[in-house]
TrEMBL record:
Needed cofactors: Mo-bis(molybdopterin guanine dinucleotide); [4Fe-4S] cluster
Residues of the full protein shown: 1 to 703 of 898
Species annotation: Stutzerimonas xanthomarina
Keywords: 4Fe-4S, Iron, Iron-sulfur, Metal-binding, Molybdenum, Nitrate assimilation, Oxidoreductase
Span of domain 4Fe-4S Mo/W bis-MGD-type: 2-58
Membership in a protein family: Belongs to the prokaryotic molybdopterin-containing oxidoreductase family. NasA/NapA/NarB subfamily.
Protein's name in the database: Assimilatory nitrate reductase catalytic subunit
Amino acid sequence: MRQTTASTCCYCGVGCGVLIEHDGERVLDVTGDPSHPANHGKLCSKGSTLHLTGDLDARALYPELRLGKGLARARTSWDSALDHAANMFAKTIAEYGPDSVAFYISGQLLTEDYYAFNKLARALVGTNNIDSNSRLCMSSAVVGYKRSLGADAPPCSYEDIEQSDCVLIVGSNMAYAHPVLYRRLEEAKAKRPEMRIIVVDPRRTDTAELADQHLAILPGTDVALFHGILHLLLREGWIDRDFIEAHTDGFEDLKRLVRDYSPALVADLCGISVAELQDCARTIGSAPSFLSLWCMGVNQSTAGSAKNSALINLHLATGQIGKPGAGPFSLTGQPNAMGGRETGSLSNLLPGHREAGNAEHRAEVADYWGVPALPDTAGLSAIELFEAVRSCKIKALWIACTNPAQSMPDQERVHEALAGCPFVVVQEAFSTTETCHYADLLLPAASWGEKEGTVTNSERRVSHVRPAIAAPGEARPDWSITCDFARRLEKLIRPGEPSLFDFTNPAALFEEYKLLTQGRDLDLSGLSHVVLDRLGPQQWPFPAAARQGTPRLYEDGVFPTDNGRARFLAEQYQAPQEKREARFPLTLNTGRLRDHWHGMSRTGTAARLFGHVEEALLSMNGDDMRRRRLIDGQLVKVRSRRGELLLPVHKDDSLRPGQAFLPMHWGDRFLNGLGVNSLTLPAFDPISKQPELKHAGVEVEKV
Ligand code: SF4
C-alpha cells in the first residue's frame, strides 16, 4: 500500500523537509514538504531525485570481516563482528592506552548517533580522539562565532535572507551548494529589486550572476577585503557608535589595525579596483539591514578563523546583528554539521557547546554520565588524527558515515595511513567508497529513509527525521551499532559496572542528551521527538518552558560572553600557505557541482544527476590555456607538490587568469586510481584546524 512519511533531505545544511512516498519496502517518490519552514515544499535536483538513489548494488548489506591485511573480507554475523571489534579495541586500549584508538565520524550522522559516539569515546574509552568531517567544513565558523560572539550559534533565520536590504555572500556558490535557499533569495530579489546583493568569490559562479556587484577577489584575500571595507566604513562614519559602545569590546585595537588597510593597499592585495571596494563599502554602510552569508570559501583556509572574525567585525561595527534582515549567517555544508557541533563531535568540544579543554565542563559532563572523570588530554583534529594513524600512534580507528580516503587533503598520505593501521572499522551505508577498501571490519549502516533521529539545519532548526522503509540486508541504524559495540566493550574494560549505553531507541538517546544542553546557549531541554511531531521543526534555544523556538538571537544586544559583550578581533591578513611560484603558477580551487554531493557514494548511483556535468573537468581561463597551447576537452596533466591527475581541461572564463577549478566530487573510482584531493595540501588553520582545501599551487601541461 502506498504511504507517505515526512522526513528531511539527507544532503545539505538547508535541511529541507521531504515527503517520502513508499510501499513499506521501496521508496517510490520524493516531494518537498509544504509544511516544512526551511523549504515550503521546494526541493533541488538532488533532493527531488533521492528516490532514484536506492541502488542496492552500492550498499553494504552484511557485516564483513578479514583477519589479516592481505585477505579478502568475508561475511560474518553481527555478534561475531562486534565481539571482534570490542576485543580488538579493548586489547589496544589495555596495551597502548585510550589515546591509541580514535573515532572519525560525520556531519551526516543524526544527533542521536553523534551523542552515542561521543559518550563511547569520552566516557567509556577515555579519549578525546573523536573528530568529524565537519572539521573540513565548519570548524572555522565555530571558532568565529565563539571568539566574536561567545557561542557557536548562527544568530539568523532564513526569513532574514528575505527581509534583508543588503546580502553579502562570501565564498559560497549557494546556487549549487544550497539551492533551495538560493531560490528563496532569488525570489526575494525579484519581489524587492532594490535589495542589494554582493557576491565575493574568485570565480564568477551562477550565484554571482544574481549579484548587483561581484567582487572577484584573489583567492584567500578575504581578511584584507573585510579590513578594507571597515576602513572605509570608519572613514565615512558608516558605523554604529552607540551599538559599539553599549555592546562590544576591543574596537580601539581593531580601529588601529584597519587604519593601515588603505583602499589602495586592499585593492592591490585583493586584485580589485579602489572603486569596486568603495562601492561595496557604500552599499553595506548605507543599507538599513545587512546580512552576510558564507561557506567553504571562507572556512576552508589556513586563515579561516581570522576570516570569520573579520567578517563578524563588520556586523558589530555597523550594529547589524540581532534585528530583522541582519547578522552574520554561516551556511552549514552538511545536513547535521550543526548537530555535531551541539553534541560535541569535534575533538575539542563536549556536548552542549562545552569545551573538552575546560575542567569545569569536563566535570559537569562526567558527573551527568556517572563516570569519575573525562579525559583531559587534547584530542586530535582530522589532519592530526590521520597523521597519528600514519605514524602508528593510533592503532585502532573507527570511521562512520564518511569517506576520508576521498575527502581528506593530501590523499596519498591518508591512503598510506589507512593501509598501515592495524585495525580499521568502517561503519558505512555504501560499500563502494574508497575508505571501505581499507576496512578490516565493514559494518553495514542504515541510510536516509531507513533511520530515525533528529538533525539541526543552518538556522538552528531541529527536525525529526523519520524512517519510511526497513534498511536492506542486515544494515542497522548508526546509533544502534554504536551502542551495541559500546555495551560489548564496557564488559571488557569496565566489568561489573552498570551500562552507560542502555538505550533501546533514538528517542531515549535524545532524552538523555537534551538535559546536557539545559541552561546552555543552545538549550534543547523543551524538545523531544514527540514535541517535534506536535509542533513541527523548531529553532533552538527551546528551553523546557518554551512554547516555540527562537528565530533570532541577540535581539537584546546581550551576548553569551563572560561580560555579555561581543568582541572585535584584530588580526592581520595572512596570505594562503602556498605562494604562486614558477613551478606551480596556478591556484587550484575545489568546490561543488550543482547535482552531486560529496564523494558521490549516493548521487553517483543516479544516472540523471550526471546530466548537468558528466565527468570531472579541470576548468581554466582561456588565456592560461592559450599560453600552454591547450584546447577545450584535451587531456592534461595537473600537478601539485603532492600528486598529479590526468583529466580533460575545460575553458572557463568565469575564472580569472592564474586560477583553476576542480569539482570536489570525483575520487579514486572516477579518476583512474587517483582523486581530486591527491593535489590538495594538509595545511590547516592554527585555531580551527580546518584544512586549506581551496588553495593549492598547481601547474597544467599537455600529456
Ligand atoms: Fe536537499 Fe539541500 Fe537540495 Fe534542500 S537544498 S533539497 S536540503 S540538497
